[in-house]
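ok trying this again, last paste got cut off
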Amino acid sequence: MKSALVCGAGGFIGSHLVKRLKREGFWVRGVDLKFPEFGETEADDFVVADLREPQNCREIVDRRFDEVYQLAADMGGAGYVFTGEHDAAILHNSAMINLNILEACKNRNVKRIFYSSSACMYPERNQLDANEPVTREDSAYPANPDSEYGWEKLFSERLYLAYRRNYGMETRVARYHNIFGPEGTWIGGKEKAPAALCRKIAEVPDGGEIEIWGDGAQTRSFLYIDECLEGTTRLLRSDALEPLNIGSEEMVTINQLAGLIMEVAGKDVDIKHIPGPLGVRGRNSHNELIGKRLGWKPSEPLIEGLRKTYPWIERQLQHLRGSNTVSVAAE
């Protein structure tokens, strides 16, 4: 039986990845600071541990794994990444995790390791035009990400590529573009735009009002979790050596994203635009290279993913409201 290690297995993408690998017949060890929030883990072995500590990483990588997926990071949505309040923690925590995991894998002769980078590492100058952002993989340099989160991702990309060159490790790097779906963070400040807007629209009645940061004309693309996992496993098992985008090419404004969610919800709500952290003006995945290297690229329409995500968030909100009602009644 093949074995896999998933770092960040208590998070959104990691918990879904564990389920996929189990369906493929792998023995899976998961590790994270916490267990998955929205259900029992399907990992054969789950270790609650802080990967910033080298000894923890040595104990977790106690054998050769056929595949290692390094998804663990200090991250969140715009409200967490772009305020500047968490820059030191983001840089320190994520860099330490990657340094420790790579060294532990090298010392166990683990060869095949996937690293989840981010489109946030692309230069700010190429993403100032909301309608024509540039995110070709070869546009990364000269480097100038718009956040410390992006700079750390770029550093770690180079770290994984250096371990491949110097130690013969089969590292693979993906630049994720806004992954979303059920069982992801949807409240609390670290949620990303699709989950935040699903929650806001679920919270108000038809004809109500929600708030959106900025003018809503900033553009992004959003990739449903199942397609993310397909691209991730294909990339790790491929011969592609350079970092590849894993994202959708269906670019929408944030206002348009809200409109699609309203369509799914069967509601028509007003939008109030307010000041807030925004990130770059435009970003979209460029999928020419992944198509060439893997013979595959994401294709599911955004609204299909929203049709699966919105009802899940709506149920979470109803459950939360029910819990609050019970709590108030008990008092």
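PB: full thing came through this time. Residues 326-331 have pLDDT under 50 and may be disordered.
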